[in-house]
Amino acid sequence: MRKEDVIRSIILAIIIIFIAANINGINSFLSVHTDRTIDFGHSETVVPQAWNTTEELNLTNHSKTPHAITNEYVYIDHWDDWPEDHITSVSDAKFASMEDGGYEVIKRENSTISGVPVSKEYFTNPSRDNNVTWSHIGVNYVFPKEDTNYAIQVHYFTTHDYDNHTFIKEVDDRIEDDMANIHNTKYN
The whole model's pTM is what? Predict the structure, then answer.
């Protein structure tokens, strides 16, 4: 082989190794990735990867709104223009009206998630706690953002999940991401 052929072979080998080492980055750069969103009221949020809308899975009968998302274990419903920016008896009455079989508050707490004040309320629907269905607990989040008040409800999970701090942390993390992705389309 001539000296020029050896140099070309080395350069070609370096290029092939570079492409192989950076194939994921190159793929991400070349691919067009669009987030799936759901619209509710005058707002929208991103559907996370590995989650689906209840409409996509024909599971709208399991959600409380036609624009819920699910990982097929829990459902997350969204409302904008909620009547208040924290949970009081007004929110309790509204949430209770959505539950067939009862609504009992387990625990209420206020916290800050990503700098936003959030009222959180864990509840149970006693009629769901039976020998057939053990998932009867949910959690409501109410918070203000972009000139409107939002409510998010995660439902239903079991008492075991409720007592599992890791599970509750994962739910809070999912809602934190959701809150970051919610946008009021009428907000300037």
Answer: 0.79
pLDDT 10s digits, 116-154: 999 999 999 988 877 777 889 999 999 999 899 999 999
Q: In 3D, which of 102, 113, 85 has the Cα closest to residue 169?
A: 113
Per-residue pLDDT, 36: 84
Token pair belonging to 66 = 């036609």
Poorest-confidence range of 21-30, 100-109, 143-152? 21-30
CB 79 within 8 Å of CB 106? no
Instruction: Specify whether the CB–CB gap between 92 and 102 falls below 8 A.
Output: no
Residue 58 has pLDDT above 80, yes or no: yes
| CB-CB neighbours of 54 under 10 Å | 23
Straight-line distance from the first to the last Cα atom of the chain, in angstroms, rounded to the nearest whole number: 67
Alpha helices by DSSP H, 34-136:
89-96
- Residues contacting 142, CB < 8 A, separation 6+: 82, 84, 85, 86, 87, 91, 118, 119, 121, 149, 150, 151
